[in-house]
Amino acid sequence: MNPRRWLHEHSLKLLAIRDTPEAIAGGVAIGIYIGFTPLIGLKTALTILFAWLTRSNILAAVIASASHDILWPVMPVIFAGEYDIGYWLLSRPHHFPPSFIKTHLDFHALRKWSNLLTIGKPMLLGSLVCSAPFAAFSYWFTKRLVARHQRKKQHSSQGPPEHERDVVP
Q1: What span, in angstroms and rounded, lies between the C-alpha atoms of 145 and 68?
Q2: Rounded-to-10 torsion of CA 43, 116, 36, 2
Q3: Which residues contact 167 (CB under 8 A, 6 or more apart)?
Q4: For position 141, what pLDDT does the model report?
Q5: Burial profile 47-67: b = 16 or more Cβ within 10 angstroms, e = fewer
Q6: Which helix or strand (DSSP H or E) is residue 151 part of?
Q7: Handedness of CA 87, 35, 76, 109 (dihedral sign)
Q8: Comparing 169 with 11, which gets the higher pLDDT?
Q9: What is the model's pTM?
């Protein structure tokens, strides 16, 4: 699958939605924001809930959240960066966590519920902080794109101006 073609098809789906540019852009921003979180099983439900609560377009939010899945090959790197930032924000005095290379990783221990707060809390906080600029940019960009598309569509549906129409004498 070609990622560029896939992204183009999803952007065309966004442009086909009949709603205000603000509602569509809000849905996209919510989908991008929640797409960065490590809550893998809850992303779609949270996206729908927050889009509904903010009266944003739910379909745009789900499309944006699904389009975020194109980043799956690099998500471990993103999650590690989010964990580092969250760990730095939660530690007093601020310091970054020890390197994963220097620590002994026991993958069976990572599946324990007790690690949810030790690993999950910094990762969730870091994801919320890191995704905010991407969500703000996606709101701004989508709002401009959808507004331009809707103006072009409205202009083309009105037909040519009065002075350009064929006048029969």
Answers
A1: 18
A2: -80
A3: none
A4: 92
A5: bbebbeeeebbbbbbbbbbeb
A6: helix 121-157
A7: positive
A8: 11
A9: 0.76
